[in-house]
């Protein structure tokens, strides 16, 4: 195991992991737990990475599988608080509000749809998405069009 190479790889691609954590988990604590689990699974499988695909493709595949497997295992926890969640202050700009709306819409998608759109937003090609998800490249385009339409309906665009 080459620990420095692994750590450098994770440092360069941690945005992928954070994006998937935010997409698949609601609370900060759950996102942190999922992030740690993704790192652990990547570390375990790092020696088996053969370099046949881009490292980012491999990271997406391991991270998505971890998010989906972890999601199936977990039972929802219901927590009650005495106060309302913090609202964004007026110093936040419109882009932040739009980003929150987009993530809220994305959370309404099925797990398969979330996986496809996350890869698409991660600048993956249709072929790379097809390889990771395990579907035909042409079907990726069909699914993306359906997902985009669904998001537009959710956002009422």
TrEMBL record:
InterPro entries: RNA_pol_sigma-70-like, RNA_pol_sigma-70_dom, RNA_pol_sigma70_r2, RNA_pol_sigma70_r4_t2, RNA_pol_sigma_r2, RNA_pol_sigma_r3/r4-like, WH-like_DNA-bd_sf. Gene3D superfamilies: 1.10.1740.10, Winged helix-like DNA-binding domain superfamily/Winged helix DNA-binding domain (1.10.10.10). This is RNA polymerase sigma-70 factor, ECF subfamily. The keyword Nucleotide-binding does not apply. The keyword Magnesium does not apply. CDD domains: Sigma70_r4 (cd06171). It comes from Chitinophaga ginsengisegetis. Belongs to the sigma-70 factor family. ECF subfamily. Residues 100-150 form the RNA polymerase sigma factor 70 region 4 type domain. GO terms for molecular function: DNA binding; sigma factor activity. GO terms for biological process: DNA-templated transcription initiation. Residues 10-75 form the RNA polymerase sigma-70 region domain. It comes from the Bacteria. Keywords: Sigma factor, Transcription, Transcription regulation. Coiled coil: none annotated.
